[in-house]
Amino acid sequence: MALVGGAVSPARAEAVVSCGGAAMAGGAELVCSHRRPSAPEQFCTFSWTLSSTDGALSTVQGSFLLPPGASNQAVYQGYGFANALSNPIVLCQGRKN
Questions:
Q1: pLDDT, tens digit, for every residue of 37-92?
Q2: Per-residue confidence at 2, pLDDT binned at 50, 70, 90?
Q3: In angstroms, what CA-CA distances link 73 with 27, 69, 80, 91?
Q4: Angle formed at CA 81 by CA 76 and CA 83, multiple of 5 degrees
Q5: Stated pTM of the model
Q6: φ and ψ at residue 76, rounded to 5 degrees
């Protein structure tokens, strides 16, 4: 693909939201932090495939609003899960007031 004005490499932006999830001891938790105070609050959606304690597959989905300065905020907690079958997929977009 040719670009007008010469070759341009894709820009790499620092992630505004950082999330991590774990499933163990019968529970699952997804925790997120807002990493850039100068960025607006973030509206995020997530999807996560987990295995229940009885072996059934379950995909949990949801959304949350993460304000600047939020640190280690639990955005999802669930029970009855043995393990995670995938990493949580979290998509965020900044919201302007």
A1: 899 999 999 999 999 988 899 999 999 999 999 999 999 999 999 999 999 999 99
A2: very low
A3: 16, 10, 21, 16
A4: 100
A5: 0.79
A6: -155, 135
Cα 80 to Cα 74: distance, rounded to the nearest angstrom: 17
Give the amino acid at 81. F
Is the separation of the CB atoms in 40 and 17 below 8 Å?
A: no
Angle CA(47)–CA(89)–CA(51) in degrees, nearest 5? 55
* Site of tokens 């987990």: 50
Burial 57-75 (b: 16+ CB within 10 A, else e): eeebeeebebeeebeeeeb
Residues 6+ apart with CB under 8 A from 83: 23, 24, 50, 51
Annotate 46-56 with b (16+ C-beta within 10 A) or e (fewer): bebebbbeeee
